[in-house]
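no rush on this but wanted to send it before i forget. theres a chain ive been looking at and ive put its sequence and its fold in token form underneath. please have a look and point out which stretches look like helix strand or loop to you. thanks a lot i owe you, the record is right below:
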Amino acid sequence: MRSVDAKFQSLACRYLRKHGKRLLAHAEGIRTENDIEHVHQARVASRRLRTGLGVFADVLPAKTVRRWNRRLRRLTKGLGDARDRDVQIAFVDAILASHPADQRRELPGLNRLRLRLTQQREAAQPRVIETLDRLDASGIVPEILKETAKRKTPGKRARTKAGNAFVWKRAARDISRTRDKLLRLEPCLDDPEAIEQHHEMRLAAKRLRYMLEIYKSPFDGRLNEPIKAIRSLQTLLGDIHDCDVWVTFIEQFSDEERQRSIEFFGHARNFGRLRAGLQFLRDRQTAHRREAFDALVVLWKDLRENGFWEQLKAVLKDPRTPIPQTSTDTATDQGTEPAQEEIETPPDEFADCAEVEGPKHEGPAAPPSPSDKEPPVTEAEIQSEVTPAPPSSETATCDCCGRNGVLQDDLSKIDSGQLLCPACTSAFREKIGSD
């Protein structure tokens, strides 16, 4: 293992420890709480860890990194079916809740779809528990926390989140590579039917977003606007992919239900009552795909015309370069994050350890593992970690829990640059106070 720049090593340890703790917390939540978000966040944490292990491979022994990656990849895959069904069930529930009461002919098909999805989710639960048991038996997450704790660079200067020439150079290299992969896919926006290329573009946007987020703190806020812009791209690409997945899934589901009807009744007439609901959902997703694709083309054109890619390149070349705010309001009204971005993800798409799945809003950082031995934090240090955000009468969004409509002057800013609501600030203080 080569000698590693102190700031780069500090950045690596902070990142890996943060997501290692989150993985532990959400893995425990899967076992103890009836909340589908824990499965999602556990997968997100595992993918972020794999991303970090790829970016920060210099900090740890190569054999150790490979072993951790194998275990984390198995976890991501082991939770995949359950997460897909959770997302699909929630989506169908939302459709049923908003469905007009006078349009009852679609209900049998929608209800049958929900029944089958629920059955599949129940069948997936044993694998979820088995996957968690294997994770616990491997002991890799406590091992990650222990190894990174040993490598945490002592001294206040090393712990600061400002960058240096080495970190900026590595960031420019890693971000530029992922950016170029995304830009090479631009021609597929000329073809609304280029489904496979749109899927590749979704993954490329996701990888770029996460690479930007890894290096966010050393750039002192200059990557905030690029992250927002790429998140908007990812949202639209996620919507498009979700629609593609649903159309394929509904076609397969229809064939399977028709065959079940023939096997049970000896004919397919009973399937006729399901057809209207399934066709309704298929048509709905087909129409929404067209809308999302049109919005994606508009957003991409706006970024091009506003010089977004040139501005990002300038910041990577000189970290002191400011980036003007970029309009990212073109995204569809289905939310600010891809709601179903993990459905039908090929198991090996992140084999290079530098590619991740995008998350929903994540909660406060998880409590530390018992094996994570660190000196106690004083009250003065806690107060220095959390400082009031600039006063404002405008509302904002908590970067931790995603709560909207929080008054700007009610948010607190931590030294990573995140703005937290009062509840998340309290949780953050408790966390660092118990480290």
Q: What stands out?
A: The chain has a mean pLDDT of 80. Residues 379-434 form one domain. Strands lie at 386-388, 395-396, 406-407, 412-414, 419-420. The chain has two domains: 6-317, 379-434.
